[in-house]
Design brief:
Layout lengths: L1 H8 L3 H4 L1 H22 L56 E3 L3 E4 L2 H12 L4 H15 L9 E8 L2 E7 L31 H12 L6 H14 L1 E2 L2 H15 L25 E2 L2 H13 L3 H4 L4 H12 L6 H5 L4 E3 L2 E5 L2 E5 L6 H14 L6 H19 L8 H9 L2 H8 L27 E6 L5 E7 L8 E3 L4 E3 L38 E5 L4 E6 L1 E2 L4 H13 L5 H6 L3 E2 L7 E3 L2 H7 L3 H6 L5 E3 L5 E2 L1 E4 L5 E4 L2 H4 L2 E4 L1
Parallel strand pairs: 18-19
Antiparallel strand pairs: 1-22, 2-10, 2-23, 3-4, 3-11, 4-7, 5-6, 8-9, 9-14, 10-11, 12-13, 14-15, 15-21, 16-20, 17-18, 21-22
Helix pairs in contact: 3-9, 4-5, 5-6, 5-7, 7-9, 13-14, 13-17
Length: about 650
């Protein structure tokens, strides 16, 4: 009845006037401010400083989020020999087929949540916002709005790259860690300015459908955090490992971590119920604001709380850093293989390294190559893309690098100088790396294709497991430790490669990233053919490269591509990293000895990366496969 009365008077001049509109804006803003006072009380914002360094043992280590994950479960657990293991005969139950749309992510319920957004009239960009927020809630060890990421989005043929990488605080400098090797990995000094939320809002503005509001995309995730969800096996494993390595050794950190413990003080385990009401309140505040602005408002309750917490743990990040944060929205990097166009992330990502490695493989590949030579050429591609990555950084001459390494001239030089051979590999000096680079960690990737052929690939991260290990319990936000992805002066590696001057810390600078979310388009049909990306630190770029190579050169189906044992080489150490040598030898008998005869050596590592992809097949339907084998992901579509 009330709405009917209002509709009768909606055309009244007062309701159409600027006075009414301005009054409505002022009233809405006042309500939002009052609401925020109840959500996050400014009276409790200021925290006393904590001397974290004095409480960190000298032998503290931070775990690699992927290497050895499968070995961390209990011996009586039926999954103990399965988490993190590749599979040559993957079950078809992990292949999801959609006639119209598909979502592939690390978390089954997040894939389904994204599908529901599509069914409500949202598009791929809309669904990406919900999925990203969902993953950051459930798999909070690997992503969240306290971190950053990269987005590649295709909407009605328009493709954009969004660099939402974290930025160094304004007071940061290259000597800020002194002789400490741990303060860039844990505590307030490791925190960079988060970018994920601004990137998601850019995506919403640039490619959103307009059918669903910003608030509507948040609502299912708010409800999820408020009502709760079950702890997964992967989250149990991660919690146990981080408790062993960090929380048990730095007990002062435990006080604020409310959602990872049961009421009896024990860590959550598989099946336990997790609720995050404070995080739900924060997401609701952002949703009601209608944009990401309140997250970066230097006078707002979120920034004040995050800054207070970070500074209490020794951080230098301040309100102005949030106010000054910006994303880079630009054209993607583009290349072609055969009858397909490849779009990958621009900015400080490793999209350029991916394309250069792919172009190198495409140049040396021959369809008559046997398994040994095919694998040798793949590894040589990894080594060259690793060399090229050492030239990258948040630098002014990026356009020159793009021009140089998207052409084939550099490959011509390599071949003419005898720096590639079918008959042998070479030591690391042959590949001419310019500098040592740090190894990024963590991350989560998801892929989406909607029924109008729009597509999004997003890779998001807080870096190491649970980022900086600094959790702001008022907002429920876990803050990243992305400062660890910068290079530090006077820290050379074992081969005397000096740290990259291009990746040194500087105020407002972004650290180099290994991510490369990618969309491949079929030129003949102008349709999205493949959306792929990976999580797994420095191994991401090689993982995406081999997924593309196995799909388009070896004609692997998507299920086999994702489940297959992955390889990696980054020049140093001078070995092929292999998830499971036994599985590789089973699939290709004699390949280990054949590659050793070419001077290759092997290092078995366990899980290297987790990949989630979507492939369009000949009948036009979409195949979605999430990495169940390494991260218990599942896709969902319709």
């Amino acid at each position: 009845m009330g709405s009917e009365k209002f509709s009768k008077h909606a055309d009244h001049p007062y309701f159409q006037s600027n006075i009414f509109r301005k009054g409505l804006v002022i009233f809405s803003t006042a309500c939002l401010i009052i609401y925020s006072l109840f959500v996050i009380s400014p009276a409790t914002i200021k925290l006393p400083p904590i001397d974290l360094l004095s409480q960190i043992p000298h032998d503290l280590t931070r775990t690699d989020p992927y290497l050895g994950l499968h070995a961390q479960t209990n011996s009586d657990d039926p999954l103990s020999d399965k988490i993190g293991q590749p599979d040559l005969n993957p079950s078809s139950k992990h292949l999801h087929i959609g006639k119209k749309a598909m979502v592939a992510s690390d978390v089954p319920l997040c894939s389904t949540m994204g599908k529901e957004i599509l069914l409500q009239g949202g598009n791929a960009a809309d669904a990406a916002i919900t999925v990203a927020l969902c993953i950051g809630s459930v798999n909070s060890h690997s992503s969240g709005i306290g971190g950053g990421g990269f987005i590649i989005s295709r909407n009605q043929g328009d493709v954009v790259s969004i660099d939402a990488r974290e930025m160094a605080p304004g007071l940061a400098h290259k000597h800020m860690y002194g002789d400490s090797f741990v303060l860039s990995k844990i505590g307030g000094l490791s925190i960079a300015v988060p970018g994920e939320l601004k990137g998601l809002y850019d995506l919403f503005q640039k490619h959103g459908s307009g059918n669903l509001t910003w608030k509507q995309l948040f609502e299912p995730v708010i409800e999820l955090n408020r009502k709760g969800f079950q702890c997964s096996k992967v989250f149990e494993v991660v919690l146990a490992k981080e408790y062993e390595l960090v929380l048990s050794k730095v007990p002062v950190l435990k006080k604020s971590w409310d959602f990872i413990f049961n009421s009896d003080g024990k860590l959550k385990t598989e099946g336990d119920w997790i609720t995050r009401p404070n995080y739900a309140n924060t997401l609701e505040l952002i949703a009601n604001n209608g944009s990401s602005a309140i997250f970066y408002d230097p006078q707002g309750p979120i920034v004040k709380s995050l800054v207070s917490t970070a500074q209490a743990w020794g951080g230098i990040i301040n309100e102005h850093d949030f106010a000054n944060y910006k994303t880079n929205v630009e054209s993607p990097l583009v290349s072609k293989i055969n009858d397909y166009t490849i779009y990958t992330s621009n900015g400080i990502s490793s999209g350029l390294a991916l394309l250069s490695g792919l172009n190198f493989f495409n140049r040396v590949y021959n369809s008559s190559d046997d398994d040994t030579l095919f694998t040798h050429k793949l590894i040589e591609s990894f080594k060259w893309l690793s060399s090229i990555r050492t030239r990258f950084g948040d630098i002014d001459n990026r356009e020159v690098l793009i021009k140089n390494f998207t052409s084939n001239d550099w490959i011509d030089d390599i071949l003419s100088q005898g720096k590639y051979s079918d008959k042998q590999t070479f030591d690391w000096k042959n590949y001419d790396p310019k500098y040592d680079i740090v190894e990024p960690q963590g991350t989560s990737h998801f892929s989406i294709v909607d029924e109008n052929d729009n597509a999004v690939g997003m890779t998001t991260t807080v870096n190491l497991l649970f980022g900086s290990m600094i959790y702001d319990s008022r907002t429920g936000i876990i803050l990243n430790d992305e400062m660890d992805d910068f290079s530090q002066p006077n820290v050379s590696n074992a081969f005397n490669l000096t740290p990259s001057i291009y990746n040194f810390i500087y105020p407002g600078k972004r650290p180099l990233s290994s991510t490369a979310p990618t969309i491949i388009v079929n030129d003949a049909t102008n349709s999205t053919d493949f959306v792929i990306g990976a999580a797994g630190g420095s191994r991401i770029t090689s993982a995406v490269l081999q997924a593309i190579v196995r799909t388009y050169y070896h004609n692997f189906d998507l299920l086999s591509t994702i489940a297959y044992p992955r390889l990696h080489h980054q020049l140093i150490p001078e070995s092929i990293m292999c998830e499971n040598v036994t599985v590789l030898e089973t699939e290709h008998p004699g390949i280990l000895d054949s590659l050793k005869n070419l001077n290759h050596s092997f290092l078995e590592t366990g899980a290297l990366t987790a990949m989630n992809g979507i492939k369009r097949v000949k009948d036009g339907s979409l195949h979605g496969v999430s990495d169940w084998w390494r991260k218990r992901g599942e896709s969902d579509g319709y």
